[in-house]
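Q: Entry one of two.
A:
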Amino acid sequence: MKPATPSGWFARYLDYLTVEKGLAPNTVEAYRADLARLDRALKRRRL
């Protein structure tokens, strides 16, 4: 089994925010931008 990645977790979380929580598109996009920044930081630090 392939290990889960932060990118995969982030995508599932964004889906949850959209489908289950019903957040506005602009709110989800703000979360997406923040998570993308976190993902880049994790990759730079090789975590």
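Q: Entry two of two.
A:
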Amino acid sequence: MVAGNLFEFAAISAILIALPLATTAVNEICRLPVPNDYIECNAYFPSYRFNASSKQCDRFVYGGCGGNANRFRTKGECERTCAEARRLNSVCPADSTWNAQTESCVCSPELCPKESCAPDENMEVGVEATGWPGDCCARYICRSKSAKKYNPYWKDTVAAILKKSRATRKNQFDVEEAGAHQVDRFLPEICLLPQAPGLCKAAFRRYYFDASSQQCVLFTYGGCMGNGNNFQTKEECEQTCAQNTDSSE
């Protein structure tokens, strides 16, 4: 297809996309049924549609004709248009609530139980972290060189906002030793999660902490879903997980 025809198709598509938005109420657009890829026409226009079931903007190919107003040129346009529908239908974890200003789930610190490590360790721990949906009150693991066993405890304060996009995790620990007793390391729960490439088809270079080998390993992330064991750089992975392991064992 020559450049002139491509330009003509693009212009027609822009008009077809814009017209329904001017005549259909926004709150109705986002509730329209999700159409299949339009194959009536032979154009190829990557577009986005709002899926009321998943509350996400899904990518599809628009053929140039047919369909309905649930069709956007960019994911950002789809998300902005259907932001209210996403907010009203957002489901947060049990220990968090929806924050309309940040459009994210916010942890509820008062719901996080307080529990310390073994009595002989006598430690005080403060944690500041940014997590993923479902990570409120995330469990950490502590161990004693003398006991040679793991004892779970829950972080006693949570100041985490579960962002829509992945944010850098920085866990800060303030540990006091009791006398000559040595408390060695803490291993965040995200470091124990398995590799999770996610369900999307992108190809981002990421690192995850392999608890069995105690190493940060390169993997390919699809761009959505997955879990917290997902770091943009090897250094970030090592700072969060590798330095919290006991290399002498």
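A: Comment on entry two: The domain at 3-88 is CATH 4.10.410.10 (Factor Xa Inhibitor). The chain has two domains: 3-88, 96-244.
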